[in-house]
What we know:
With 401 residues, this protein is of the alpha/beta class. The chain has helices at 2-10, 44-52, 87-94, 141-144, 146-158, 362-374, 382-394; strands spanning 13-17, 56-59, 75-80, 100-104, 107-114, 125-128, 171-173, 178-180, 190-192, 198-200, 205-206, 211-213, 216-218, 223-224, 229-231, 234-236, 241-242, 245-253, 256-257, 262-270, 273-274, 279-280, 291-294, 299-302, 310-312, 317-318, 323-324, 328-330, 335-336, 345-346, 350-353, 356-359. Strands 7, 8, 9, 10, 12, 13, 15, 16, 18, 20, 25, 28 and 30 form a 13-stranded parallel β-sheet that branches. The chain has a six-stranded mixed β-sheet with strand order 2-1-3-5-4-6. Strands 21-26-29-31-32 form a five-stranded mixed β-sheet, with no helix packed on it.
Amino acid sequence: KAFLIFTQSFGMNYILFDGPNREALLPFTYTRPVADIRIGILTIREKWELFLGATTTTITEDYLSEKYPMVEMEDNIMINASYLPSHALVNQIKNLSKNQAVYDGDAIVAFYSFEDQEVDFDSFETFQCEDSILKVERTWDIFSKNGAAITADFELITAGRTSAAIPERTQAFNAEQIFIEQGARLPLCVLNANNGPIYIGKDSEIMEGSLVRGPFALCEGSVLKMGAKIYGPTTIGPYSKVGGEVNNAVFFGNSNKGHDGYLGNSVVGEWCNLGADTNNSNLKNNYAEVRLWSYETQNFAKTGLQFCGLMMGDHSKCGINTMFNTGTVIGVSANIFGTGFPRNFIPSFSWGGASGFSTYLISKAFEVASVVMSRRGIEFSAQDTAILEQVFEQTSVFRKD
C-alpha cells in the first residue's frame, strides 16, 4: 500500500481516457468507462496497471466521473483505453517526454501532458506504434478478439508462477497451458487446452461432468455448473454462475446463466441473469452478414461477421425459455419474458417481450438491483443510482411508450 502511494506521488501519473470509440461500445459503456470492459482474463484497466506497475484513473463521461474519477498531477500520460497493452507499446509510452505522442495510424494512443496544458497535437513529436496491438473499437470485438486477449493475459499473469495441481480424476490435455489458482475446485471434468490456454481463478469451481475447451478463463469465485459444455474463446468474469452450452462468449462478472440453453458469440454485462433454457441464435438462416444495432447511427449497421449473437447491458434479465434472434442488442436494466422472439434491439429499461414492451419503472428496477447486488455483499450505492438515472434519461428516446 505504501509503495502504491509512493508511485502515485512521485512517479508518472497514468490516466486512461474513453476515446472516440466510447459510443460504439454502448450499451456496455453506459455504466462504465471503456477501461473497465473485460476482455481476456482481465479488464483493460487491470491489464494496464499490471504492465505499468501503477494505479490509473479515468477521463470519462461526467455522470460516471464520481464513481470513476480522474486525478491529474503535474506530469501525466494519457492513454486511450480502447488499446490493450503490450510490452513494446508500454515501453514506448513509458519513454514519452513532454509534447510527445504515440499514434496508431491517425489515431491517438497515448500522449504526455502536464497539468492544465492546452494540448495541440500539431506541435507534438509523434511516434507510430512499433507493433500490431489489440484494440476494442466495437462491441463485437469483445468476443471476436477474446482468444488473443486470453492468451496475452495468460502469459502475463502466470509468468514465473506455478499452477496448483490438476486433480487426479480430472482429464487434462496440454496441461502446460492450464493454470489453476489456489482454492479452485474441479473434480471429474475435462480440460482441453490444445487450442488455447485455460485459466481457472481463485476459489472458482468447475462442477463434475463439465467439458471445457480453451482458450478459456474462469475468474475468481465463479462456478461452472454440472455438465456444462464450454467452447473457447470464452471468459466467465468474477462471481458468475454458468451452465449449459456456451461458445465464444464473455461475461463481465456477477452474472448468471445457471441452466441449460445455448449462448454463442455474445457479450453479457454485469448483474445480468439468463433464465433456464434461454437460447440465442448466432447465425442467420441464409448465412448472411449479421447487422447489429448502432447507438451512433441509431440504425442497424454491418458487422462483417457471419456469427454474432447477443449483446446484453448491465442489470438486464430474461425469463425462462427466452429466444433471442441473431444479433440482438439489449440495453441496461431491461426485463424480457414471454413466448416468441423479441425484436433485436431492446432499449434500456424495457419491460416485456415479443408481444410488446412498456417502460420498466425505475423505482422497481432499483429495487431489483439492490436485492441482486446485496446477494453478492455489494451495496447498490447512491453513485450507482445516479448513473442508472442518467442512463434512463439518455435512453428515453429509444422507448416508444
